[in-house]
Amino acid sequence: MDPIVYVSLGAALAAGIAGAASSFGVGIAGAAAAGAVAEDEKNFKNALILEGLPMTQSIYGLITLFLILMVSGILGGGFKFKNPNDIDNIIKSAILLGAGLTVGLTGLSAIPQGIISAAGIGAVAKNPKTFTQGIIFAAMAETMAIFGLVGALIMIVTGVGF
Amino acid sequence: MFKPEEMAKIDIISLGRYKDRLLTYLHEKGVVEVREVDVKLAQKDAPNEFYRKAASYSISISRLVDFLRAHRKEAGGGLKEFLFPPEKEKRTYRYKSIEQLIKDVEAFLEKVEPEIKAVEGKLNATQTEIERIKANIAILELLSVLNIEVDYLKSTDMLEIVVGTVERDRYRALMEDLKEVVGQRFVSVSKELKDKYLLVLVFLKGDYEKANPVLAKHSLERIEIPEGTGTPRDLIIEYNKKLREKEEELEKVRKEAEWLSEQYYNETAFYHELMENERDKATILSNLVRTNMTFALTGWLPKKNVPEVVEGIKQLTENKAYINIKDPKPEELDEIPIKLKNPKFIEPFEMLTEMFGVPKYNEFDPTPIMAFTYSFFFGFMLTDFMYGLIVGIVAAILIKGHRHLRDGTWRFAHILLFSSFFTMSLGIIFGSYFGNALDLAGFHVPRLLDTMRGALTVLEIALAIGLVHMFIGYTLGFIVKIKNGELKDALLEQLSWMLIISAVVLFVISENHPGLATAAKGIFGAGFVLFVLSELKNGGLAALLIISDFFGFVGNWLSYARLMALALATSGIAMVVNILVQMIWGIKIGPLSIGLALGVVLFIGGQFFSTAINSLGAFVHSLRLHYVEFFGTFYSGEGRKFEPFRAKREISKLELDVEA
Hints:
The structure holds two protein chains of two kinds.
Chain A (H helix, E strand, L loop, with lengths): L2 H37 L4 H9 L3 H16 L15 H20 L3 H17 L4 H30 L2
Helix pairs in contact in A: 1-2, 1-3, 1-4, 1-5, 2-5, 3-4, 3-6, 4-6, 5-6
Chain B lengths: L6 E9 L3 H11 L3 E3 L7 E2 L4 H22 L7 H6 L7 E5 L2 H46 L15 E9 L3 H12 L3 E7 L3 E9 H13 L3 E2 L9 H53 L4 E2 L3 E9 L3 H11 L4 E6 L10 E2 L11 H7 L10 H16 L2 H17 L6 H22 L7 H4 L14 H29 L3 H23 L6 H21 L5 H17 L2 H25 L8 H37 L9 E2 L10 E5 L4
Parallel strand pairs in B: 4-14, 12-13
Antiparallel strand pairs in B: 1-10, 1-11, 2-10, 3-9, 5-7, 5-8, 6-7, 9-10
């Protein structure tokens, strides 16, 4: 494959999978939020914050997309790894694909995070004091996405470099 | 600091006639946590008739308060009230006895309740009437297609007239069935509506009995013909006139309700608060015991409050009280309520500790350390001078607005203010002002480290911080356990990890000083042996737990990588916003530089969004690092929080008025 295919696949999968997973997560939490607000409008602020938690994975995906575009030169300047006959170009662009895939797949954690958020929204509707606890529970699921971002970053910085 | 407030146990026995005023005194003082008296001999106390009345009045008054609040003129709410909640005036009540208080409340209710109930009744009646008129108008509009005087639609002595609607697909069947039952002896008029037929059926009185089941079978929806004479159109005009009259009346009644609200809302809310507090007082009575003449009460209070409370009780009871103050005994360890004690500027952080759970009486209060590390972690994850400034300004406004309330928002704002200092300082170190906005604008920004380009260095720093943080935790646990005489646990569970962490640090240093490598290996070995020993108590599972616990430790350590990941996320989102703004900056349509306007909007909106979402992330993950990773090293949080017997006074103030 040409290096450009690797690179664009990496960028697309990072933002694409993580973004899709985030929308699933937000969707699940949003359905619960609508119910909680119907019960009592005062739940709006708390429900909104909990609903937003599964959104971070898509942000990690977006950041990775931008990083991949930057280090490969697509953003600012020109594509650095054009020559497909240079093995170094193949290696570097394949690493970028791996980095993007790491963030994309760990971004799937947005879906279970949405489920936890939804449960948290239900709990907050019953007892507003459980708000922070609900956030902490939901933040647990994000750990994997954070590890994914850290891993991808190490791959990009050590494997390709700015 | 570091240790919870010293507590003392108090036992009080006094004469029954002082009980009411003594309870009231303690309730207003709010420094004693009342506990159940564990004496089999004596009888448990229970609320008397006046307390039961208080409970029932508190419910009936709360209904009045709800009604009056719904009709208040000033709406309240909104952002302004959230930022600057108004200071509430406190009205004083001179408390003689519960009997007198109930009498006062009854007098107040006698005056006010009928008035409010009357207006409420009138309001409801008018609203019902308006609903009825609206329903009639809707019916008349339906009938207006017939253009028949409504009088003709009413049954007479001889004829039974039915008006109703039926589903379109049932109309034909209905007519056929009717013919079968009553033959030709009925008349029908029908009009086609959207998906229904409007039907007027005229039967002879005698036939109606037979026809009725058929109508029910085809689910004919009957229409009640409204009162009045004339065609539907004429009647609609009449009814509309009535509607306007009623609406005017409703407006008048609303004004009355508003007037009542203006007149009585504050007073009603005041009495409501008084009754709520009496109700609260009544619930504590079951913890007391009594004999015919005396009662006994027990509880905990902070040692520093002992002299004034004892003095107060003596005065109230004219020295006819037995008071016993005891220091807590070791076997009462799980009973002692915990009140955290910290200097003023750290106090808001107690909120974070309390959310997890307070320490036991012989444990360490982690609040002071958390005050520093929490804010630092928050700052590390947000790392932007401008974001820190925004958070700081919002926090400062909230602190100013809520300073008279000292509520949760006020304390939370303090935490944010502390955190914003670290955010700004770290933002300067990382040279981040709205991310790389200044760089893109062509300025040369000094920075010690770039989050993005120096990502690996930042990761190393994050992991080093993690090691230090966990080492502090294990050391604290070690000290506490030594102090409490749990030498074995201190060595095996705490020192083992302290040694392992020291060894890791030595390994890193030994890269430059090879001589240290052997020492590092030795220390690691010693630590690991202690760790293995600590797991042996689990018997058969030991081997499994050694593996899982050791990697649990590694996992906890690596979890600190989120410090770097979130710092990067901040600069990443800011960068994305900045690049997008830069892209559209130059767009021009003719002479209009539309990109400039769009760019400014996008920049402000995007950066505010980034501030909000990254602050939320920093808040949550900083808290998580403390609750999961840090507290896991030494802290149980299994203490019992001090919950004093305390009156809630927002708009009222009680003055104890007793003849000495």
